[in-house]
Amino acid sequence: MSNITVDRMIVYCHMSSAKAVGEELDRPELMQRSVGTNPACPQCETQGNLAMRISHAAIFYSGALLGTAVTALGNTPVGPQADGTLAETQAAPEFVPGAYIVELDDVDDDDDQGGIPQSFYRSLADEDGIEVEHRMDLSSSRLFRGASFQVLQNSTATAAAAATGPDEHKRNLEEDQQQQRTKILAAAKAKPRVKNVWPVRIVKFKESLKLANSNSQSAKAPVFNTRRTAETTGSKRQGDGRDDDETAEDTFSPHVITQVDKLRAEGITGKGIRIAIVDSGVDWKHPALGGCFGAGAGCVVEAGYDFTGDDFLPGSNDPQPDGDPYDDCVGHGTHVAGIIAAQPLQEGDGGLNFSFTGAAPGAKLAVYRAWGCRATSTTEILIAAFNRAFEDGADVISCSDGDSSGWADDAWGLVASRIVEAGVPVVISEGNDGSSGLFLPSTPATGRGVTGVGASTNTLFPVLFTAATYSVGGDNASLTKEEEFGFLQGSPPFPAAVKLPLWPAGNSTAPTDDDACSPLPDDTPDLSDKIVLLGVPSNSNCYPIDQGTNVAAKGGRYMMYYAQDNLTLDEEYVYADGIEGVAMVAPYQGARWLDLLLNQGETVTVAMPNNPNATTTRLEQLENTVSGGYMADFTSWGPTWELEATPQLSAPGANILSTFLLNQGGYRVMSGTSMLASIYALMAEARGGTMDPALFRRLLTATSKPQTWFDRVTAHEGVIAPVPQQGGGIVQAYDAAHATAVLTVDGVHVDDGAAIISFNDSDHFVGEHTFSIQNTGAADLVFELGHVKAPTMYTFIPGADVLRASAFPNPIVEGVAAELSFSSDTVTVPAGGSTNVTVTGVPPSTDTGLNATLLPVYSGYITLTSSDSNATTLRLPYLGVVGSLKSTPALQPARVYLADYNLPVEANRTYTLPRPDPAATPPRDDQSAQPNVLADLTVGTRMLRVDVVQIGSNGTGTTLGSLPGYPLPFAPRDEKRAYFKGLLADKTVLSAGTYKLLVSALRVFGDAEKPEDWDVLETVPFNVKYE
After folding, report:
1. pLDDT at 83 over 90
2. Which residues are the active-site ones (predicted)?
3. Is 436 a catalytic residue?
4. Model confidence, pTM
């Protein structure tokens, strides 16, 4: 079946994929019907009704609202336009062409002016012929001295390769196979003041992009200056972090899950702590965020900076920085700010009051806008933002997005690590690529000392409904009882002021799969003056369009769906002739109406809002009995490719209610793990104002609560989720803040500060580690040591013809785990003293049938159970790999080939391309009309190269240089596609002729100077002509 990706509201579709799915389902009408423009998918106006609600048959929705959206044909990324909507865009390069970051070992005040390293630039020009232009000063922090620069196209280094004939290519380019980027990197690194040089990476913030364009969980604008409704299930008004209400009961579910409520009961709110947020900016005009910006009284956002402006897009325009981080187009940073420090709204504050606050409402915020409305940034901007946050006096730095990597050594991660070393915790979302399996954490969450945070699912499912009313009874007004209910507007939306009785499409009060899936009976009444009540079909042979067609055949115009369960509650789309309004209510509301209609014989009349543009928002906290409390399936998995443990911790990160842009409703339910930055602030206040990143990570990891393994469908009671998914588990803020026992691990391959042991892989196995238990309390502590095993999982799919990374959930190897022994099974730690324990690990044996080639990852927890039954059990997580990462090929012949979409191309195919122009914008990527190599990386690689080889008349090959975007450092495990458009990375124009593409990848733990540590594969030859 064609791969169509659907988020909660917006459907991404393609004509050919619509045809394919229509054929496969034997539903030609899905291909043939056309109903005009689909407001959920403006690109789909000629594509029929396939895209209207195909998710019931072919698409799994995780509820996470995260990840990269792609079309079915071509894997074209979807990007935000200036108006905030999504549009298909050409696949952007991973690096800004010709842009580099340089780190210098000092700053020469006599030569460097305004952060511009003039002597370094002159040296490149005079000694190497490389003319450059200054981009950004990155020397604002004492932790990183440097700049970014742009290589100009008139450099000697680029001009030398400008000829187009094959002889000139051989003479000018043969000596340097990696070509321009390698030459520039080598020249820059050779300068005496240079510590390191990196290409400027483009970072696309997928989470921000997607979430800002889904309004299924938004308050309907405008919410301010309208009637307030805060309908919750059992919630009480919570404290606002102000001195007069610091100990009020906190029942907000994410706070209860993490014990924030217990610290709040002690009056701990994060007072005196500044939390820096590096994100999309913030709508500081929001009343719950103080409504002001600056150091004035009542301002929650007291400082910040905008590094980008609204319309910045790397490679297309320049940033427009200013001193105000205000955001009114993305909203992700506003959601983060509310999770951390939202204030409650009192009567008269002019806004909705949903009875929740941020986890640390006493803290102040400094917000640094690192990407604008196009949800794209660069590593130079992110480094500048982190540096400024540090120098502005941040006590904690939080960034709830990252770049899929698996590597720890890129420039951004290095800066984050140095900030932690300087005493400021850096908290980063682990990422949203959990569906792709192991070894895919984000950077800079992979940075050494940085706290990577996994996401668990909220135990409640908050929903922001639009409020309407219904009445029960007949024509006698004395029998009428009006009640409020909440609904999600579907498509087409209900018109204003519709007031009609409900008519049930089914005759059962139990949820059914087939309401109106078949033509309605002959005795069905005229439905034109009724609202048809029906269930969402879970039958793969029934679509909303079928239901709509059958309802309309009896005159029906309006459809009121009820969800089958809370987690499938969503907007519904029905594109059938005659249907004028569609809405959705929660399962309990549908059941209530069915009972009234079918069991009690009552008449139920629904009154929809008079003005859909000025409606009341109704918050309902529905139960999540399926995935609540377990790890979210979208959260990225570790470890890094060097076997460093990540994530370290987890926190609620799915289905989180928080503040949002005022122009989009002011509140939204989204996903985000920013609460952990708040917990650092709470711990600092609770422990006397001291902020020690390593100590706090040890305390939080040891006191966290590991969660039951949930495979997206089933919770396996008695089995804990693996360490690479959850780290220590869900943080327990109160236990960490009041802990008197501190676990510290010494030795090799240990994640510093997080108290997680890595046994590494079989080649680098370190089987013995020593950890200390420090007792800071006034009484002796006695612990019994134990071992809890987590499932061992294969990285690759068993039985596949080649090594293929498994998607979530990875295959479990039943009954196979590591064995641990301890130098002592019971230890006594004297008050004020410490005790050492040595743990010896024996990895799972291949004698049990374990296949080491598939890189099984094992993990578990050392438990320290106190003799005091009231004390918290401490845990020390561990992980390791059976097998050799270095022996695992990064490239496999069957997975690297010249491609036409996803199919291999025969040798000697001829392509006719537009004549390349180095000064013009390159043509859009075309997976069929342009030569392109598809390389599916088996594992990550520190360096991936795609070079062009010209084939001479005698059949010999000459390597000319790299394609644009290559070489690519620190590449994650995923699919890469490189296009031949007649230009090299340095803008050299290639002549017509015969070529191959050469793909090279350095293996994990490989030495770049040793040829045997590289996997090198080439494509079949192809011919190029120009128009």
Report:
1. no
2. 279, 332, 674
3. no
4. 0.85
